[in-house]
């Protein structure tokens, strides 16, 4: 995965290592599962776009793309959501 920012980088600093990609994908596992659910439910993409998005995900995070759950449970934010009902959160 390319990494870009405003500072000059050496060529070897521009990409994440394979080990770093695995850690990043594991850390983002729950978010990846939510992303997959959104893709499945999306009404503004067609089947080919869905397949392309899933292929891209499989290229980036193959394990998380195939799994349906993660080692770390999804956090329970129901109380936070209930408390915030009717409030505008910035």
Layout of helices and strands:
Layout: H1 18-27, H2 29-41, H3 47-60, H4 62-66, H5 78-84
Task: Give a written overview of the molecule.
The chain is an all-alpha fold and 90 residues long. Helix content is 54%, strand content 0%. It is extended, with a radius of gyration of 17 Å.
Features of this protein?
5 helices; mainly alpha; 90 residues; 54% helix
What fraction strand?
under 5%
User: What distance separates the N and C termini?
Assistant: 31 Å
For the secondary structure, the number of strands is 0
Shape: extended
Largest sheet: none
Q: What is the subunit arrangement here? A: single chain
Please mark out the parts with pLDDT under 50 across 5 or more consecutive residues, or reply none: none
Q: Please state the structural category.
A: mainly alpha
Q: What's the SSE pattern?
A: HHHHH
> Fraction of residues in helices?
40-55%
Mean pLDDT: 88
Count, helices: 5
Q: What is the CA-atom radius of gyration, in angstroms?
A: 17 Å
Quickly describe the structure.
The chain is mostly helical. Helix content is 54%, strand content 0%.
